[in-house]
Structures are given as C-alpha cells and as structure tokens.
Amino acid sequence: MGARVVDVVVVGAGVIGAACADALSSAGLRVTVLDRGPLASGTSAAGEGNILVSDKEPGPELDLALSSLSRWPTLVGGTDIEWDPKGGLVVATGDPAPLAHFAAVQREAGIDARWITPAEALEREPHLTTRVTAAVHYPQDAQVQPVLATQALLSNVRRRGGVLRPGVTVVGLDARGVHTSEGIIACDHVVNACGPWSGEVSRTLGAPIAIAPRRGMVLVTAPLPPTVRHKVYDADYVGAVASGDADLQTSTVVESTAAGTILIGSSRERVGFDESIRVRVLRELARKAVALFPTLADVPVMRAYGGFRPYAPDHLPVIGADPRVPGLWHATGHEGAGIGLAAATGALLAELLTGVTPHLNPTPFRVDRPGVLECA
C-alpha cells in the first residue's frame, strides 16, 4: 500500500479502538475510526470501568495492566471520566490459604497487596459480612466511567484532525483499501479493534483469529447512601476470570458508582451472541452479593444489563501485526479487562506500527501464537 489520504483505519470505536486511535493520532498519523454502530456503544458501554491489578497473576497481562494504570490519570487531560482510585478489597469467607498465596506471588511482582485481618476489612467496609476469614487490600485498583473514558479518547482523536464515522460497516479489505458500506477508504494500515466481534471481522478482512464472545451480566441497585467504599470481590473471582469453561461461572463483585448505585456482578458464560436476560444468572448474582453484603437484601434493583467480552483461548490480548495480510493489525481479546488494559494497548500498538521500540515485550501478545490462529 502506498501513501494515502488516511494512514490508519481503526475498526471499532470501543475503548480499545479509541485508545489505539488516540495513540496513533498522537504519533502524527492520520486516523479514521469506523464503527457499525454508535460510538462507544458496544462492550465498553456494558462494563463497570474497572482498572485492576488485583485479579492478575504475574506475567504479561499484569505488566500491561501496570503500564495502563500509570497512563490513565493523564491520558485524557482534565476531562471528567469519573476517575476514582478507590482501591480493591478481595475477601475470603473460607480457607484463606489460596488468597494468601496469590497475594504473596503478586507482592513478589511489585504489586501493593496488603494482607489485612477480618477486623480491618470490616473497618474498611462496615457493611461486609462477619463471615470474612481474611482479606487483601489493593490500593492501586481504580475505576472510571467507561463511556466517558472512551468518548474522551475519541475526542482527542477528533481534536488532532482524525475522523470518526459511526454507522459504517466494514465488508472487505484488499490492496485498494478498506471496503465499507459507504465505499472504499484507501489507507496504509487497518486495525481490527472490534472486541467480541473481532473474530467475525477478522474473517471479513481475510485473516481469521480465534476471538469469541463471552457473556456477562450486571445488576444495578437504586442509588444508596455511601455503602460500599472499594471494589469488593470474593477470592473465587480470580479463578472465574482465568477459567476457560464455557458453562456459567459466577463470583461476587460489588462496587459503588459516582451516582450512588451499586453494581453487582459477575458472570461469565459462552453462549455466542445470545442477548437474552437470564433470570437464573441474576438470582445467583443477587444471592452471592447478599451473602457478602447482607445489608443489600432489602435494596431494590433498578435494572440489569449484559454485554459480551472478547475471549481469547489463552486469556491474553492479541496485539500486533497479522503476518498473513500486509497492513492488517489486531488489538482485541482483552475479555473483561479492556478498560484497564486500553491505555497500554494503544501505546504498544502505536509503537509497533510506527517502528518505535516498544515499552513492553510484545511477544506474548503476538497474533501468530498457538491457539489464536490454529483455532480460528
């Protein structure tokens, strides 16, 4: 592909696509962002906005998370994205040994994981169940409002002269450029940042990768006085995140928002793109949340919503060039950690695309690793 009016077309206007477009436009490239729906309306609109280190074991994903954590506070300037460095609290109500081991391993990797007593946990969260046997406080965990964060990144792109085009569907790719429902866009590079739909779009672009949707659901309570101060979850959550099981997995996650509502999760289930509300899942989430915070038993639920996470077979994001199609790049597979990993993902992809020495080792995220291509 030769010199074009557009240097890069980013397909997907969720937080990962927005972060990639932000980093690329910051590097001086001419960027156009496409999305078949409204901007920031897919997975990023269905998330909780978590920026976590507490749920990641030492390795490439934790390195990516730490890099993102350091970038998020200044990435969107003074824009209000409801940045809240609230910290996380992971609690055990049974055998504390697995949680103690996990926290110890994280501390060895440089994470601020503070082992606290049940009494200290109750001081931090007075409404917590007295059945807690142990807890770990993670001061580094934070939260943003995901739609505001995504829109702020896209505003950066627009301010630098980038073009945002919602309602445009990609239908192919060849030497002339990206074929869309609105015509051909000539460009040098294309970034597939379509989240759970990345597998489908990768096939359209002629280079299939093994990304599939993983369904999750969240309950939202009516606004309450200050009730939950941290992101609080039970020790089972880490295992549910790392599991590859297609069947339903639930674990207790409870946290407040700036509006005073309480978000209750989390569930994971591979059911394709089935959007139906599953009452049995909501009942399970509610039951486990009340077990962790008994005071929630009489709180009205205002609504429930669900979304799809981009699931990769080895639970690592896919970031980099596709070896099969010149000019094609992928940034996807972050599952439920997209908000937290977005800032560093955008930076890493821009570094690789522009030939700058990457700030992280990109090899673990390469597209041509076992499973990502072989299972496609």
From TrEMBL:
Protein keywords: Oxidoreductase
GO MF: oxidoreductase activity
InterPro entries per UniProt: FAD-dep_OxRdtase, FAD/NAD-bd_sf
Residue ranges of domain FAD dependent oxidoreductase in the record: 7-352
A cellular component term, taken from the record's GO annotations: cytoplasm
Signal peptide: none
Pfam families: DAO
Keyword Oxidoreductase on entry: yes
Coiled coil: none
Oxidoreductase is among the record's keywords: yes
PANTHER family named among the record's database cross-references: FAD-DEPENDENT OXIDOREDUCTASE DOMAIN-CONTAINING PROTEIN 1 (PTHR13847:SF287), SARCOSINE DEHYDROGENASE-RELATED (PTHR13847)
Name the record gives this protein: FAD-dependent oxidoreductase
The organism of origin for this protein: Actinokineospora globicatena
